[in-house]
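Note to self: the last two entries modelled the partners one at a time, which told us nothing about the interface. This time every component goes in together.
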Amino acid sequence: MPAPRRKRRRPDVAVLRVGHRPGRDPRLTTHLALAARALGASRLFLHPPDPELADRIAAVARRWGGTFGVLGVSSWKPVLSEYRGGVVHLTMYGEALTSVLPRIRRAPRLLVVVGGAKVPAALFEDADYNLAIGSQPHSEVAALAVFLHRLLGDTPPSRFRGGEQRIIPQRRGKRVLAVRGRNPG
Amino acid sequence: MPAPRRKRRRPDVAVLRVGHRPGRDPRLTTHLALAARALGASRLFLHPPDPELADRIAAVARRWGGTFGVLGVSSWKPVLSEYRGGVVHLTMYGEALTSVLPRIRRAPRLLVVVGGAKVPAALFEDADYNLAIGSQPHSEVAALAVFLHRLLGDTPPSRFRGGEQRIIPQRRGKRVLAVRGRNPG
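The predicted structure of the combined assembly is written out below.
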């Protein structure tokens, strides 16, 4: 008799941004970090470190809830080699999302690596999967967003417990609720 | 007798970026334009105009194929009022994607509006739908990418006919094919 179907556990997904340029990329990497958080990743490893950016994201997490954080790393290679889980490198040169997705769906832990303008060639070798969200040039923010959404689906509000405020979805206009004490999610 | 099932035609999706700041946002709006193109939108209306950015995107389209282009507009209101189709405003304050999607799936033409840091209040009123990709702060690039991907699915290579080169997806490394003469897509 087959085992009863169980609800699949959400995998833990961490993101590693390689080749951030603190002087030049602050807004782009901020968007990347916020998208990672909003779409269900648990944390962002940032190479090289950018304490100001990490502080800004920490302030967002305090206000809007959840445990997402940015961890600066001075070398990206150890993050990959020490990671206990599958490593997915997002690149326009890789295999199509639809062909990779069935192979990684059951992984309990995934590290998603996104590069900037210049990506070290070693990344293609060190990753378990090189995955393309379409074989056209676009944006690492867009690629990460589509990947997380396809892998994790909608992010449940319970990911964002403990914030100071939350949005009540509206047809028109804005409605933001101040959360007093504990946010039930 | 019910009519036989026909393959649904892909809707035509245009994007309108409101409140671009040419001095400050060039990279972010470039990412937005490239994501719009790669994920199947037909064009980007850019407010206010930014000829340099439009030229950069035109160069990408020449090299990588397709007919996507950036059209500068000095006022965004007429774009909405003259648009013959549904208007979807992406905002973290809006209704959830999953509740809006069934209502817009059959639209033949859609205009997707994305704001920057400050969004004019009138947009909430003038749009047919205010749609949130999660009720958390993140990125207009990420929101647009998830929306286009959910609405249009994978972008067929035929969208990118006529380029000078194309990528052959690989497990490792990069493979780019120079296209001589007409690209069959």
